[in-house]
């Protein structure tokens, strides 16, 4: 885990620099590919995923290490060709896991956050799941384990394969010639993220587009059908934590409400979007009918709130980066406490972005938690050793964060008119 934290200290600045380059290039090209609140939501989602991964909050049903030790038919060494073969086989496994996530009701909850943005840019690539707790696709790695690929190869190839999927989340790159026939390009992935009827559930591949062409799920981007992004049932929130659980919450409600016991069981494993007929009739959901007439989610933030939300994002990035950079100096209990605070902080300011009534209680909890940590640890996680007056700065931030939340919630118009039913609905 410490090695993963060290890798993130390099990956995070790299991703942020590329996002800034894309924003600058879009500005120079006269295109608008970012909306402030949407981009903040995307980056916040990336941080929640980082928190989950760094805490190791995942349960692997059957580890690859165990499979290769007990099931390997051959013993092979980590030669260069083994790394290439592993990359290709992992990409095939990624295709099928991605396809399952899109086509099975329960599994869609593991992936909905990645498709929740109504924009398509590099920042939306960072919308990654925190609800993907159980490693349920271990069986896709059985062929790799059977041929004896060492676990160290998987450990090296896996992050490379993941990070290689970042760059093609952009609207600024058009067709790429002969590469369109071999690898996933921005054009291919724009199709995948689109909710146009022609594009739904197409182009699942992660790196090699040949999988889609072989398995019948390929769709070319059409000049007369510009992609429209998001989900057919709009998430209508900037809060990445709510997004991660709203689909499974809907499944729970439908399973509870339906009178058919068989429907209570099968709803979890039916095609994505399937609902029991008695529940669908009584509790209809709003599905986008005409993608070109769908209004994008917009809470009409004031300029002050937008600026404050950017400040909150930057502070959260710095706080998490500090923990990653000093990961080896902290115990797991300390890291758990630190990341719990960061998680609550993200929950709080994204609820404020939504103009949600929960912003104030969440911020009060965050303030109390922060002050208690400073008191109990006699400072903010050893920060004074690296930054003179760091604890004082943190305390000032906690006070200002609470005051600004109260100001935006109680003084600026519209906040308390927002329905309390938005939570997980």
Describe the structure.
- This protein is mainly alpha-helical and 425 residues long.
- It is built from 17 helices and two strands.
- The chain has helices at 2-28, 36-54, 64-71, 80-103, 105-108, 112-115, 142-146, 151-163, 186-193, 210-215, 240-257, 261-266, 277-282, 303-325, 332-353, 359-377, 390-410; strands at 59-60, 134-135.
- Strands 1-2 form a two-stranded parallel ribbon.
- Helix 4 (80-103) packs across helix 8 (151-163), helix 14 (303-325) packs antiparallel against helix 15 and helix 15 (332-353) runs antiparallel to helix 16.
- It starts with a helix and ends in a 15-residue tail after the last helix.
- Residues 418-425 have low confidence and may be disordered.
Topology, pairings included?
Blueprint: H1 2-28, H2 36-54, E1 59-60, H3 64-71, H4 80-103, H5 105-108, H6 112-115, E2 134-135, H7 142-146, H8 151-163, H9 186-193, H10 210-215, H11 240-257, H12 261-266, H13 277-282, H14 303-325, H15 332-353, H16 359-377, H17 390-410
Parallel strand pairs: 1-2
Helix pairs in contact: 2-14, 2-15, 4-8, 14-15, 15-16, 16-17
What's the short version?
With 425 residues, the protein is mainly alpha-helical. The chain has 17 helices and two strands.
* Morphology: globular
Q: Please state the structural category.
A: mainly alpha
Largest sheet: 2 strands, parallel
Low-confidence stretches: 418-425
Helix content: 40-55%
Order of helices and strands: HHEHHHHEHHHHHHHHHHH
Keywords:
425 residues; 17 helices; globular; mainly alpha
